[in-house]
Amino acid sequence: MRLSLLTGVVMLFAKSAAWLITGSSAIFSDALESVIHLVAVAFASFSLALSRRPANARFHYGYERISFFSAGFEGALIAAAAVAIIVTAVYKWMHGLELESLGTGTLITLGAGLVNGALGFYLIRTGRRTNSLILVANGQHVFTDCWTSLGVIVGLCLVLVTGWKPFDPICAIAVALNILWAGGVLMWKSARGLLDYAEPGLEARLRSTLDSLAKSQGISWHGLRLRETGGRSLVEVHLLFPYECPLGEAHHIATLIEETIERDFEQPVEVITHLEAQEDHAERHSRPHPR
Known about the structure:
- The chain folds into two domains: 2-194, Cation efflux protein transmembrane domain (Alpha-lytic protease prodomain-like), CATH 1.20.1510; 200-286, Alpha-Beta Plaits (2-Layer Sandwich), CATH 3.30.70.1350.
- 70% of the residues lie in helices and 9% in strands.
- The protein has nine helices and three strands.
- It has a three-stranded mixed beta sheet with strand order 1-2-3, covered by helices on one side.
- Strand 1 (220-228) and strand 2 form a beta hairpin.
């Protein structure tokens, strides 16, 4: 995150210089996205530090879910930048376009795009390896910045080749629409996490694993629930034992199942089991629960 923050500062100065040199709407859109990116990285850095704090007496599950809020905040900033880019491009198009020193501005933007592409790849790879939603979201944002720069370069090259200046705001608007889509995706991921969306792939693997483990122990299960924290998966499941099974043995089997799931899954998983008797399970669950 420190590398991302430092790179963001350098990119902002480089793109601002390119915009001042050229007066290009497309380069302005790229520079404005870098401003938003810098703010988002600063908040993501704070969120990453907070998410690593351990659980305490007031936050029993820790602070990891700040990851979803961070992703949503970053997505909202990206969307806001996209709207500002579109408004600015349309305004400059309607009031006359003045472009100069396009060659220099194009080279600066190209260099910034290549740096952001490498950084985005590194952040996403590191985030997936460490199961950090904050790093993955930041990496996707940096990649968006890279695509923005490439879109700007296309627009400037078209202006240089054809001499038709409206290619500049047109490409700026196209870039903004791409940014808007990326921001929307991040906000959707944030909403899913905050609403405890159960990932179908993970749920299917858990069900298959529970079927195999329960069958090997001669028991059954039901009531699987899972939620993501941004750094790990919290899993709850009810295990059904024969009535005559001693409590100590049932607890031993439950612990074995918990440890097997937590060991065999690639991402961090925390499993909590609830023990029930098979014989009166249906009867007890048919009763109304006390409020």
